[in-house]
Amino acid sequence: MSQQVAHPMEKLQRHVQKLVDAKLLKPTDGLWKIALLYGDEWGYWKQELLSFEFSMKDPVSTLLAVDTWEEDEN
Fold first, then answer.
1. pLDDT, mean over the chain
2. Of 10, 36, 46, 61, which cross-links 6 as Cys (Cβ 3.0–4.6 Å)?
3. What pLDDT sits at residue 3?
4. How does pLDDT run across 14-36, given as a tens digit for each residue?
5. Among candidate residues 57, 47, 62, 50, the one with its CA nearest the CA of residue 17
6. Maximum Cα interatomic distance, the chain, rounded to a whole number of Å
């Protein structure tokens, strides 16, 4: 029985969903607002978001709308 490890972006997505549910973020807020909540870890998450072609001006809802996180093998 093999257990699948969640993609790091799935973990970020779940955390952001909890922040939206707690009304700390709105779905219409820009992704840059996550920086205010992640502090020192923001550099890593920003690079991850950029690698998936997100803009920091994109609304949080675009992150939450992703169904599957797959990286190009190229």
1. 88
2. 10
3. 61
4. 999 999 999 999 999 999 998 88
5. 62
6. 41
**Residue with the two structure tokens 């973990």:** 11
Euclidean distance between CA atoms 60 and 24, whole angstroms: 12
The contacts of residue 40 (CB under 8 Å, 6+ apart) are none
User: Which CB contacts under 8 angstroms, 24+ apart, belong to 69-74?
Assistant: 69/7, 69/9, 69/10, 69/13
Q: What angle do CA 47, 22, 60 make, to 5 degrees?
A: 35
Please list the residues that pair with 59 across neighbouring strands. 30
Q: How many CB atoms lie within 10 A of CB 6?
A: 10
**Residue 5 in this model has a pLDDT that exceeds 80:** no
10 contact partners, CB below 8 Å, separation of at least 6 = 69
The secondary structure of residue 41, as a DSSP letter, is G
Task: Please tell me the pTM assigned to this model.
Answer: 0.82
